[in-house]
Amino acid sequence: MWDLSVSFINSSLKFFSGLDEAFKTLKEIGFDAVCPSESIPNGNKEEYISNLNSASKKHGLKINMLHLPMVCEVPTEVFLSKEYFDDVIYHINLAEKIGCKYAVAHPHMPWKREFFAPEQKFDYSVIQKRCEEINFEFFSKLQPYAINAGLEIAIENIYTTDSEFKEQLTSGCSNTDEWIKYIDTLGKGFCACLDTGHANLTDRDDAKLNQKVEDLGSRLKTLHVNQNHGKFSPYGDFHQEPFSGDIDLISFAKTLKKTGYKGDFNYEVELSCAGKEVFIEQLKYLKIATDVIYKSI
Q1: Which end of the chain is more exposed for a tag (fewer CB within 10 A), N or C?
Q2: Distance CA 158, CA 178 (A)
Q3: Contact 21, 52 (CB under 8 A)
């Protein structure tokens, strides 16, 4: 079946003596790959990259994906700023240095107050054309850097939060037609990263989640698998562990298999910071849950 992967937040390194011990632990549990956080620890970044490559090679863990920096629900001028663009390019170069195939990027997550008054409910359909213009401008500028680095930008489905109405609602690439339009129009250097939790918050329907997989087809190259209670609560991107929310991950995995998905089964979940022992037990639970899912399909 697919390689088991986890998005590894660098703050979790506090439980280990370094990357070597962390990667050794992941390999012993049964992971095949790891997605490092987009946040590089302070200090010697070149040394960190060297240690990352060394630990990956030593323990046989692939590093297929890196999440690019995010600016969530900010004014358009921030998303299109030179400062943000330069940070993204820095991390594309980092992804190349650690041998990634994919760099995951959020499309623009609109700031409600830029387009709507507080008493108005956020409605992406009203601003979709403008957001598409913003995103095509941003991703077109990224394209030559991605191609030169030999990787693909995996565009992720997102939502926008309406704090006044306490809801997380459809936004960039929540609609699969828009998502496909981005990937096919931009062309070389682009693919899709499906976040199950985001899809559950915007669609709240397992059939629609599975239809996304079918519609994306070969465009889908990587995943952010996580849970929430989107069918019961309109608010809460909590990145919970498998079987702790209301997404039918077995049905989802069956659809992945049906469509011939070839990427990693990557978890992007919030793990406990209560201590090393609890943290490791949660990693073990991810392996057990994945075994259950695989045996069920």
Answers
A1: N
A2: 12
A3: no
Rounded Cα gap, residues 43 and 248, in angstroms? 42
* pTM, two decimal places: 0.97
pLDDT in tens, 59-113: 999 999 999 999 999 999 999 999 999 999 999 999 999 999 999 999 999 999 9
CA-derived radius of gyration, the chain: 19
CB 204 within 8 A of CB 228: no
Distance CA 155, CA 146 (A): 12
From residue 272, give the alpha-carbon distance in Å to each of 195, 239, 294.
20, 12, 25
Catalogue all structural domains in the chain, each as residue range(s) with its CATH number: 4-295 (3.20.20.150)
Other beta carbons less than 10 A from residue 169's beta carbon: 19
Q: Quick check: helix, strand or coil at residue 215?
A: helix
Q: How far apart are CA 190 and CA 182, in angstroms?
A: 8
3-state secondary structure of 16: coil
Pairwise CA distance, residues 277 & 56, whole Å: 23
**Residue at 129: amino acid letter:** K
How far, CA to CA in Å, does 188 sit from each of 14, 119, 212, 271, 285? 39, 42, 21, 35, 37
